[in-house]
């Protein structure tokens, strides 16, 4: 039916999830999240008891079809609008801290 | 003289056209109510000048014989809809100061129809919450109080809590809401107003700050069923900019309103009556069944066997989609940036998101990230999408026996602010009756049915077949006519 459910998550896992989520958390915050997330995950795990044999996962809630349109430019030339809300924009570009690899 | 701010949208529209009052008088009346209601904290941004500008245009249009469907009607706009030139925050710190350079499709349709904007309404942060306690800009307070001198501040529901509070307090005759798992219906129930979530795909999602894209739907909130029908007509419609928008004509729901339900069969899902269901909610539900019978409908019991799995399904799918949607808040393109001294790009992302998101948003992003992560995806996400398919099939089977479903909207009346804050799970359980229809993309509406023993409003939910908003609205009207709901909060703010 279902692949093995993880037992419960520990501090290391919370820190890993935070890192994957690109959210910095302090040790104290991560520790507080361990029981919180375990409570929620423990609760959703009841889905494991549902017999889903032969059921396809839902992909579209209301039947609809993907539309195609001609492959032409329909917008553009709005650079300044795109950059208008950037915390930092320079020379017509988004600016980020120096990246050295 | 009638207080213009007591009028419904239809009454404002019709009275304005008949020359009983000017659009400017209406806008000034609501602007004054908004300005005097800071204690409710319903608005994040007030835009009285926009309301007046639209009103003056409406007065000119009437003189020129060119009125539009919503000429003369001012409304509130949930601060999840991008509004050109007006700050749009989703009630987050992350988007504080974000001023869109474009207009959402739904709000643009409302302005094009002549409506004016009173302001941007407060909500739960990124629409994640059921009590409007997760807003960065502070809690919205319900205008309602319990009878008997209990002065506790009550939740207006969520996430469209600014919308519900403002309408109940007569700060606006109507407002937009969005509903992902109940965010139109539950706040409507808590505040004694009506609101409808249409079929998924009826209203364009373009320009609405995204939470969970397979669930998010915009809809109107107002005091009457008629107002909901006429507003939804303006808000709905095909939009090529939303890939899940339905390419269907918009029915004339207002013209189609009829409270005669002869020939309709109402299904009563037995799983919505769990042991321990609040007795007053159960009694109101029974009353609602009697009202629909009185309107000519036949009533049958139906079964939706996977109902108990709807909430856990939702709390996998919605966070999963949220974790993906909210990845865009990176401190680069818009919104806040937190750049610690000497930080690199990755540190900037993590610091920005730590500072910009509130605890509930972080919690959901992290749950979503986890259930989508390598090794767990099938156990959580794929399983949830399979159960979701079963929940939708339950509805399909039930609708072979009936045309609509009647249930309570929420398991309780409005609760006290702070009461459920400490326990995320207790808060999630508020959506137990609203989430299933969201997972199945079905149209669903809440209408007020009465008040409980403490004088607080209770709502009834009507769920319809996909695309059959008309039957939902008609059943809502049948209840509205019979409930005769006239209770309103005493002004204390």
Description of the molecule:
The complex is a heterodimer of chains A (about 100) and B (about 500). Chain A has about 100 residues and is mainly α. In chain A, about 35% of the residues lie in helices and about 5% in strands. Chain A has helices spanning about 10-20, 25-45, 80-85; strands at about 90, 95. A two-stranded antiparallel sheet of chain A has the order 1-2. In chain A, helix 1 (about 10-20) crosses helix 2 (about 25-45). The longest helix of chain A has 18 residues, at about 25-45. The radius of gyration of chain A is 23 Å and the shape is flat. The two termini of chain A are about 45 Å apart. The mean pLDDT of chain A is about 90. By secondary structure, chain B is α/β, with parallel strands linked by helices. Chain B has a domain at about 10-260 and about 465-485: Amidase signature (AS) enzymes (Alpha-Beta Complex), CATH 3.90.1300.10. Chain B is about 35% helix and about 15% strand. In chain B, strands 4-6-5-10-11-9-7-8 form an 8-stranded mixed beta sheet, with helices on both faces. Chain B has a 3-stranded mixed beta sheet with strand order 1-3-2, with helices on both faces. In chain B, helix 4 links the parallel strand 2 (about 75-80) and strand 3 (about 115-120). In chain B, helix 5 packs parallel to helix 6 (about 185-190), helix 7 runs antiparallel to helix 15 and helix 9 (about 310-325) packs across helix 12 (about 375-400). The two termini of chain B are about 25 Å apart. Chains A and B meet through helix 1 and helix 2 of A and helix 9, helix 10, helix 11 and helix 12 of B.
């Amino acid at each position: 039916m279902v692949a093995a459910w993880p037992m419960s998550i520990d501090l290391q896992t919370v820190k890993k999830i935070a890192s994957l989520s690109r959210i910095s958390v302090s040790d104290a915050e991560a520790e507080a999240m361990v029981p919180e997330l375990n409570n929620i995950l423990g609760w959703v795990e009841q889905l494991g008891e549902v017999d889903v044999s032969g059921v396809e996962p839902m992909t579209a809630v209301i039947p609809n079809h993907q539309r195609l349109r001609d492959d032409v430019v329909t917008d553009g030339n709005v650079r300044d609008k795109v950059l208008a809300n950037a915390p930092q924009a320079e020379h017509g570009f988004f600016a980020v801290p120096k990246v050295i690899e | 003289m009638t207080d213009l701010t007591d009028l419904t949208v239809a009454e404002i529209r019709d009275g304005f056209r008949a020359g009983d009052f000017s659009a400017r008088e209406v806008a000034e009346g609501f602007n004054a109510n908004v300005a005097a209601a800071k204690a409710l904290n319903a608005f994040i941004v007030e835009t009285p000048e926009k309301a007046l500008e639209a009103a003056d245009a409406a007065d000119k249009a009437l003189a020129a014989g060119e009125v539009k469907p919503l000429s003369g009607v001012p409304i509130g706009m949930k601060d999840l809809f991008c509004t050109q030139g007006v700050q749009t925050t989703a009630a987050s710190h992350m988007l504080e100061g974000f001023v869109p350079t474009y207009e959402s499709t739904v709000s643009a349709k409302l302005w094009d129809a002549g409506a004016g904007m009173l302001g941007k309404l407060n909500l739960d942060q990124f629409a994640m919450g059921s009590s409007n306690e997760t807003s960065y800009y502070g809690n919205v307070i319900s205008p309602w109080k319990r009878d008997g001198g209990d002065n506790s501040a009550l939740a207006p529901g969520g996430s469209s809590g600014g919308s519900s509070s403002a309408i109940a307090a007569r700060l606006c005759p109507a407002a937009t809401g969005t509903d992902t798992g109940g965010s139109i219906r539950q706040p409507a129930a808590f505040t004694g107003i009506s609101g409808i979530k249409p079929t998924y795909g009826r209203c364009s999602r373009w320009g609405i700050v995204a939470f969970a894209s397979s669930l998010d739907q915009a809809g109107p909130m107002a005091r009457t069923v008629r107002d909901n029908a006429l507003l939804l007509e303006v808000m709905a419609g095909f939009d090529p900019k939303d890939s899940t928008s339905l390419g269907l004509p918009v029915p004339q729901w207002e013209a189609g309103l009829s409270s005669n339900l002869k020939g309709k069969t109402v299904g009563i899902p037995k799983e919505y009556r769990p042991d321990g269901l609040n007795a007053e909610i159960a009694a109101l539900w029974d009353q609602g069944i009697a009202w629909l019978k009185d309107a000519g409908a036949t009533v049958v019991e139906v079964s939706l066997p996977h109902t108990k799995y709807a909430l856990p399904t939702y709390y996998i799918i919605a966070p999963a989609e949220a974790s993906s949607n909210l990845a865009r808040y990176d401190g680069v393109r818009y919104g806040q940036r937190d750049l610690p001294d000497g930080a690199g790009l990755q540190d900037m992302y993590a610091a920005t998101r730590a500072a910009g998101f509130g605890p509930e948003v972080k919690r959901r992003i992290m749950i979503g990230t986890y259930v989508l992560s390598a090794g767990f995806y099938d156990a959580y996400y794929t399983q949830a999408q399979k159960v979701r398919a079963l929940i939708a099939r339950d509805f399909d089977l039930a609708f072979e026996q009936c045309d609509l479903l009647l249930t309570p909207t929420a398991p309780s009346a409005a609760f006290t602010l702070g009461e459920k804050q400490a326990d995320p799970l207790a808060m999630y359980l508020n959506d137990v009756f609203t989430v299933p229809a969201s997972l199945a993309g079905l149209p669903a509406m809440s209408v007020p049915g009465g008040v409980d023993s403490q004088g607080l409003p209770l709502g009834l939910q009507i769920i319809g077949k996909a695309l059959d908003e008309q039957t939902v609205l008609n059943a809502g009207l049948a209840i509205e006519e019979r409930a005769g709901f006239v209770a309103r909060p005493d002004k204390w703010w």
